[in-house]
Amino acid sequence: MAWYPGAERHNIPPGPTDPPIHPRIICVHTMAGSIEGADRRFRDGSGVEAHFGNPMDDRPIWQWRDTLYQADAQAAGNGYCLSVEHEDGGDPSRPLTPAQIRKDLDLFAWLGQEHTIPMRLVQATSEWGIGWHRQFPEWNPHNHSCPGDVRLAQLRTELLPALQGDDVSVADVIAALKDPDGIRALRKALWGGAGDEIPSVAGTLNAAQTVEVAANGVRTLANRLNEVGGEVHQAKTTLDAGIVLQLAPDQLHALAEALAPLVAAKLEIAGHPAMVGTVQLAAEAPPT
User: Fold this and answer.
1) Cα–Cα distance measured from residue 77 to residue 83, given in angstroms and rounded to the nearest whole number
2) Which of 2, 91, 182, 285 keeps 20 to 30 A from 256, CA to CA?
């Protein structure tokens, strides 16, 4: 059994259609109402429920379902998502309160440790990390706006940076390297500009070497690249999407390991829009 120690338990036992799961994504929701109203709905026999509910005030988080069992809140994602509802008083445009953000930080950190879920936004339903209800059609067949634009922005700009801390993980960089917009964001972080320019590799001290030597005081770029091969050498010195997107998995991992400390040193904090923000915004186009 997996029950969050900081939660107030309001157990709704799993039924015959709620099998054991291996959770890998935290899915953020908003209630469009009160936590008491959500509790009544979850008990009305409709078969809908969530794992957690976060009240707007200082009351503790409610937990309805053991995290090792399915809760039905995001359609096709039910078999691998942990659903976290947020009270909004019937107004999804209302921002998360400071109390809700504080409680989310504690809950998400615990879920990350308990279920080995990385603190990063997912780009696909097959990944591990954090997502939101309307992010994928498979999770949102009724086309809800949940969790609303205001609360989604808070997830990206307040919750995620606080959860990630000061490090940029290799997993974050690998996710960026798999997406053309992510590659552009990495180039922007390392070399500035709009991220579309490919830096020159002429000479013995290119832009990547300068960043590495100045920010980290570690081995020269040439020594690092001798370890990971010619393709990765060219990929690192230019981050040319045409090269990066064709790297084998082991080469991609080697490239990400080389880039992670550079990006962290350059940005100072993970989650900075120059790195993560640009990558994650590609997962859902802004509303028009």
Assistant:
1) 10
2) 285
Structure tokens at 181: 């917009």
* Full domain range(s) for residue 30: 8-164
Given this model, what pLDDT does residue 29 score? Answer: 98
Domain count, the chain: 2
CATH code of 110's domain: 3.40.80.10
pLDDT in tens, 8-41: 999 999 999 999 999 999 999 999 999 999 999 9
Q: Is residue 125 part of a domain?
A: yes
- Check if the beta carbon of residue 119 is closer than 8 Å to that of residue 112: yes
Same domain flag for 238 and 176: yes
The angle formed by the CA atoms of residues 139, 149 and 79, to the nearest 5 degrees, is: 20
In this structure, what are the phi and psi dihedrals at residue 75, rounded to the nearest 5 degrees? 50, -120
Answer whether 0.85 is exceeded by the pTM: no
